[in-house]
Amino acid sequence: LKLEMPTVNLDREVTVLATVPGVVQSLKSCAVTWQKLISRVLEEQLKKVPQDNGPLAEIDLWREKNATLSALTEQIKLPEVQKVLEILQAAESKFTGDLQIVLSDLKKHHMEAQDNAKFLSILERHLKNLSTGTGVDVISNTIPSLLDALRLVWILSRCYNRDERMVPFLERISWEISARVRRVVDLQTLFKQDIATAKKKITEAKRTLEQWKKSYFTTCIQVEESGSKRYWKFDVKRLFEKTDYMVLICQDLYDIFQVTEELYNLFIPELTTVTENPKAVDELRREVNIIISPMEDLSFDPFSMETARDWGFVMEEFREDVTVGIVKQIFVQNLKNPPLYKNHPPVAGAISWSRSLSHRIKHTITRLQEQEELLASERGKEVKQIYLQVVKKMEEYEDQKYRQWRERTEHMLPLLLKDTVLTVSSATEEPVTTKKSVCFTLNFSPEILEIIHETKYMEQLGLPVPEMARYMALQEDKYLGYTSKLKAVLDRYHKLMEMMNEAETKLLDHYVQELWRILKAGCKRLTWKSVGIGEFIVQCTQTIRKLELLVHQIHHISEDINSKLRFIESTNLFKFPPSKNGDRHPGAKEFFDYVKCEQAKDVEQLVRKYSAIPQLIIEVERRVANTNSGKSPKLASYYAYWENRIYQVLTQLIVKNLQAFNATVVANVPVLQVEAVLSVPEITLQPTASEIEKMIVQFIQDCVEITK
Predict the structure, then answer these.
(1) Residue 202 counted as domain residue
(2) Of 50, 200, 224, 300, which has the maximum CB count within 10 A?
(3) Which GO terms describe its molecular function (predicted)?
C-alpha cells in the first residue's frame, strides 16, 4: 500500500513549480496513481466482513481496517505528498477536486475505523470471558459487565452509536452465547454423564441465556435514564428469538433428567428392598434407558429452530413413554395405600386417585393417536398395549373398592344409627359421694361422618349410593349441629361438676340427681334415629343453666363467709402498749390491762363478723330449699361443713396468737418493766416472778375463753 512518489525535483517554491507544465503533468500522473490506489483500498475495506459469526471477529475486522487506513493516512501526511497536493492546487488542476473527494473519504473511513477499534477494544476482555470463562462467572459478572461496557460505547462513540452498527454486534453476542450453550450442552456427551452433573450443566446454560436477555433490558432502561437522546429500541425478535427457543430446549432437557432421576429415586430403592429378585430392578433400569436412548443419537441439532418439529416428536414420544411407565408404576406400588387428595375420604379418594391416573394416560394415548407415525412404530404399539392392560386393572380396582364400600355401608349404617347419643361411665343409682362420680360421653361414631363424606364424593364420581347413606349425607349439617351442641352441653356439665366442692355437691344433691335423670335419657332411649334430639339438647341446656346460676349464687355467699372467716383468723389478739418516753416500758399490771382492753375491742368485732354468718347460710337455705328456718334437714351436711370450717378458723386464731405471744416472750426484747427494791441485805421485785407467772397463765386462759 505504499504511495509512489514523483520523480521530478520539488526543491523550488510551490508557486514556481505550479507554472511549469512538465512538473504539473508529472505530478498529476502521480496523483492519479494515488487516487486509484486509495479508491481501491477503500473499496476493498468496505467489502470486508468478519471472518466468523462471533463479536471478536468484528473487533478484529475494525482493527485490520484501522491498520490499513492508518498506513495510507500517515503517507498522505508526509511533507512530500502534501507539497504535491499544494502544487496541483496552485495549478488549479480540475483533477484536484476528484482527489480531494477520495482523500476526504479516506479521512472519514479512517476516523470511523480508528474510533470503532478504540471503543470496541473495551469489550474484548468481556467477550473473551464470554467465550472461555466459567459458567458462574459468565452469569454473575461477564454478561452484565459486557452490556454495561456496550452502553458506554453507545453513549461515547461517534460512529458506533447507530442502530445499523449496534444491532448486528448484539446479534453476534447472541450467537456467541448460543455457541457457548451448545458446547456446554452437548447431547452426545451429556447423556453419558451422571444425572447431577448433567442437570448442573443444563441449569448453567439456561441461566446464561436468561441472564443475557435480562441484562439487555436492564441496559435499555439505563440508556434511557442516562439522558441520551438515542434509546435502545432494537428489534427484540432478531436478538432473542433463537436464544429464547434455546431456553425452552434447555428446560425440556432438564425435565428429561429430572424425570429420569425421579424414576430411579422413587422406584429402584423400593424394588431393591421389597424383592429378592434383582431382575425387577434391572428391568426398570432397562425401561428407563430405552426411554432416554433416542436423545443420545439425534440426527439434528435440537437447538435449531428449523428442527423444532423434529424435537417436538422426540419430546412427545418421551412424555408418552414416561407417562404410561410412571402411571403404571405408581398404580401398582400404591394400590394398598393410595395417596389421597386433601379432604378426600379413603374409598372415594382411592377411586379418584385411580381415575386421575387413568385420565393422564388416556390423554397421552389420545395425543398419540393424533400422531399416526408415532402410533405405528414398534414402541408406539408396545405403549398402547401397556395402556390397555393398566386401564383394565384400574377399572377392576375401582369396581372392587366401590362394591366393598357399598356392602359395608348397607350393613354398618343401620347399626351405628341405633347407638344412644350418650354413654355414661358409672351408675347414677346410688346417692352422690364425690363430684366426679358420673361422667357422660358423646357416643357419635366417626364412621358415620366418614360414610357421609364417602357418600358425597361417591355421588360426585357418578356412582350410585344406598338410600339411607344419601339421606344421612343430606342431613349432615343437622347431625354436625347435634354433635357440636351436645359436646358443648357435656363440657358445661363437667365444668359445673368440677366447680363444686364436696359440701356443695351434697347440698345440691337433689338438683344434680335431676340433671342426671335428664342426661340418662341420652344414654337409654335416645338414639341417632330419634326425632327428639333437639328437644333433649334444649332441656339439658336449661337444667344446666339453672344449676349453674344456683352454684354461682352459693359461691358468692361462700366467698362472703370465707372473707369473714379470714378476718377472724388473721386478728391479732395481743396488741402491746407502746413504750413511753422512748426507753420506759409499762409495768406488769399496766401491760396486761392494756392488752386485755384492746382484746375486748377486737372480740367485739369478731363477734359481729361471726354473727353475720348464720344469715348468709340462711340465704343459701332460701335459695336451695325455699325456706329460711336455719334448721333445714336438707342443709344438715352444709351446716356441718361450715361448723367444722369455723372450728378450724377459731383453732388457728388461738394457735397463731399464742405462737406469736410465745415468740415475743422468749425474744431478747423487753415488753414490760419490773421495779427492783433494795431491802438490805436483799433485793425484792415488784411484782414478784411468781405473780408475773400467774398473770401470764391467766392471760392465756382468757385468750382461749374468747372462742366461747
Answers:
(1) no
(2) 50
(3) dynein intermediate chain binding; dynein light intermediate chain binding
Backbone dihedral region for residue 462 (phi beyond 0: left; psi -120 to 50: alpha; all else: beta): left
Structural domain boundaries, residue 651: 571-706
pLDDT grade for 705, boundaries at 50, 70 and 90: very high
Last residue of a domain, one of 132, 159, 183: 132
Chain mean pLDDT for the chain? 85
Query: How many Å apart are CA 23 and CA 334, to the nearest integer?
Result: 105
Mean pLDDT, residues 186-196 = 86
Instruction: Report phi then psi at 384, rounded to 5.
Output: -65, -40
Among 262, 234, 261, which Cα is nearest to 168's? 234
Nearest to 635 by CA among 428, 615, 627, 515: 627
> 277 lies in a domain?
yes
Residues contacting residue 450 through CB under 8 Å, at least 6 positions apart: 345, 346
Q: How many domains does the chain have?
A: 4
Is the domain of 524 the same as that of 575?
no
Radius of gyration over alpha carbons of the chain, in Å?
A: 55
**Separation of alpha carbons 612 and 565, rounded Å:** 11
pLDDT of residue 297: 79
Identify whether the C-beta of residue 527 lies closer than 8 Å to the C-beta of residue 420.
yes
Q: Are residues 8 and 94 in the same domain?
A: yes
- Across 31-40, 104-113, 323-332, 367-376, least confident range: 367-376
pLDDT at 337 (0 to 100): 80
Residues 178-188 as b/e (b if ≥16 CB within 10 A, e otherwise) read bbbbbeebebe
- Structure-block grid coordinates of residue 516: 342426671
- What is the CA angle 673-674-679, rounded to 5? 150
Q: What is Dmax (Cα atoms) for the chain?
A: 176
Asked if the model's pLDDT at residue 428 lies above 50, the reply is: no
Does residue 597 share a domain with residue 543? no
pLDDT band at 671 (very low <50, low <70, confident <90, very high): confident
Stated pTM of the model: 0.52
Q: State the Cα–Cα distance between residues 390 and 374, nearest whole angstrom.
A: 20
b/e 449-485 (16+ beta carbons within 10 angstroms → b): bebbbbbbbbeeeeeebbeebbebbeeeeebeebbeb
Residue 155 domain flag? no
What integer pLDDT is reported at residue 269 of this predicted model? 47
Which residue, of 397, 416, 435, is where some domain finishes?
A: 416
Residue 225 has pLDDT above 80, yes or no: yes
- Are β-strands 675-679 and 440-442 bridged in parallel, bridged antiparallel, or unpaired? unpaired
pLDDT, tens digit (0-9, with 9 covering 90-100), for 445-457: 999 999 999 999 9
Q: Mean pLDDT check: name the lowest of 168-172, 354-358, 461-465, 629-633.
A: 354-358
Q: Is residue 339 included in any domain, yes or no? A: yes
Single-letter code of the amino acid located at 582: G
